[in-house]
UniProtKB/TrEMBL annotation:
Residues 11-82, 91-164 form the Large ribosomal subunit protein uL6 alpha-beta domain. One of its GO terms (biological process) is cytoplasmic translation. HAMAP family: Ribosomal_uL6_B (MF_01365_B). This protein binds to the 23S rRNA, and is important in its secondary structure. It is located near the subunit interface in the base of the L7/L12 stalk, and near the tRNA binding site of the peptidyltransferase center. NCBIfam families: L6_bact. This is Large ribosomal subunit protein uL6. The keyword S-adenosyl-L-methionine does not apply. Pfam families: Ribosomal_L6. InterPro entries: Ribosomal_uL6-like (IPR000702), Ribosomal_uL6-like_a/b-dom_sf (IPR036789), Ribosomal_uL6_a/b-dom (IPR020040), Ribosomal_uL6_bac-type (IPR019906), Ribosomal_uL6_CS (IPR002358). It comes from Govanella unica.
Length: 177
């Protein structure tokens, strides 16, 4: 039995839910998201709660149950509050700036790195060493943060690079004479 799958997803006021076959549409104050559910689960909406149940007792149905419930919860949370990912830049001369709708990064390369921000994602640079990525789709926000971090991952000797806020970088001792 899935502990996560058993919990119903509460739907707050101001959020409308539409179910047809295995497609879920959720509309809220921040926007609208759609989710295609797998065939092994059944979703029901009653008393302002979405509940996900497995169709049968197969291994695949049981393994999809908790994951589909989490995806439904992410859709509801996304249209109500949204998701945010914070990145920090560490290193001498490393900085970020917004140039129109593009993110411009100075990361010690011979050229500036220009990252085109996809639709539905908002990138804000409050300080030259901090980047805030927000959006309603959790997967998209995480993917954009991972792509930005990929340009210069934190290295273990000096800790220079782009890291998630609060991420611990295991530091190594340098070469000894």
């Amino acid at each position: 039995m899935s502990r996560i799958g058993k919990k119903p997803v509460p739907v707050p006021q101001g959020v409308t839910v539409a179910l047809n076959d295995n497609n879920l549409s959720v509309k809220g104050p921040k926007g609208e998201l759609h989710l295609a559910l797998v065939d092994e689960v059944v979703i029901s909406y009653e008393n302002n709660e979405l509940s996900v149940q497995p169709k049968g007792d197969s291994k695949r149905a049981r393994s999809m149950w908790g994951m589909q419930r989490t995806l439904v919860n992410n859709v509801v949370t996304g249209v109500t509050t949204g998701f945010t990912e914070n990145l920090e830049i560490t290193g001498v001369g490393y900085r970020a700036a917004m140039k129109g709708k593009d993110l411009q990064l100075s990361l010690g390369f011979s050229h500036e790195v220009v990252f085109q921000v996809p639709e539905g994602i908002t990138v804000v640079v409050p300080e030259p060493t901090k980047i805030t990525i927000t959006g309603i789709d959790k997967q998209k926000v995480g993917q954009v943060a991972a792509k930005v971090r990929e340009y210069r991952k934190p290295e273990p000797y000096k800790g220079k690079g782009i890291r998630y806020a609060g991420e611990f970088i295991f530091r190594k001792e340098g070469k000894k004479k």
